[in-house]
Specification:
Largest sheet: 2 strands, parallel
Low-confidence stretches: none
Shape: globular
Helix content: 55-70%
Strand order of the largest sheet: 1-2
Mean pLDDT: 94
Number of helices: 14
Length: 239
């Protein structure tokens, strides 16, 4: 197999700007607060995913992947989509160690979803424990999301509920970091109610979440199509 051509950071940026949609940039920017408008190039997600596939297949992206922190939000998104395609579990973890501390927003954290995790769940769980014990907001959020994606079906244990509940933060006014962690905690438990009703409901009924997370969990669950009408009534009356 021929060696892939290396692509530089300026070359990646040029490809991103070729896909720029200024109207989308102006729409997107307010959704990810606390960053100036010029932090966003304005590349739509389908275009980012297609570019990531092209680069992963045809280029050596090592320079781009190690050039963190990135200059633009769209570079972070592209990085997440590139890393999500990595098929070598050890390499994926190594690259995550470099990238996770640099993630500075909820969107990049939530888009990051390595396909290789599905085949390495027993090795993944200790890594998740490490991530949720981090002092980095979006590393914690990513760890909770991994538990939600990979450990609410056949690999579920009630210890996972304990792990996520331990991430709850006091919900203080203007405490953005706490908000983005608590929102993911609530999203996790709403999903747990849909997939592991008995365990999740009993856990919540025993008062294991702070009131803000509990209220948000119930709200999300009652808005979900995966929760039955009867279960929604139970949530309304008992939590």
């Amino acid at each position: 197999m021929a060696e892939k051509q290396k692509i530089t950071v300026p070359e990646v940026q040029k490809k991103l700007f070729a896909l720029q949609d200024l109207a989308y940039r102006d729409f997107q920017s307010p959704l990810i607060p606390n960053f100036p408008l010029d932090y966003f190039i304005g590349v739509r997600t389908p275009d980012l995913k297609n570019l990531a596939k092209e680069l992963f297949k045809n280029f050596d992206c090592s320079e781009f992947m190690t050039s963190v922190p990135h200059q633009y939000f769209d570079e972070n998104q592209l990085h997440a989509f590139l890393l999500s395609q990595e098929k070598d579990f050890s390499k994926c973890l190594s690259e995550l160690e470099l990238f996770l501390p640099q993630i500075n927003n909820w969107a990049t954290s939530d888009q990051l979803s390595p396909v290789v995790f599905k085949k390495h769940k027993s090795d993944l769980l200790p890594q998740i424990q490490k991530w949720i014990e981090s002092d980095k907001t979006y590393t914690i959020r990513f760890g909770i999301k991994c538990l939600m994606q990979h450990f609410l079906d056949e690999c579920f244990t009630e210890n996972c509920l304990e792990m996520v509940a331990a991430c709850c933060r006091p919900h203080l006014k203007n405490a953005d970091d706490n908000y983005y962690i608590n929102m993911m905690v609530s999203w996790y438990f709403a999903t747990a109610l849909a997939k592991q009703w008995d365990s999740a409901f009993n856990f919540l009924k025993n008062g294991r979440l702070n009131q803000w997370c509990l209220k948000k969990t119930v709200q999300k669950a009652r808005e979900s199509f995966r929760i039955t009408k009867e279960q929604k009534e139970i949530l309304k009356n008992q939590l």
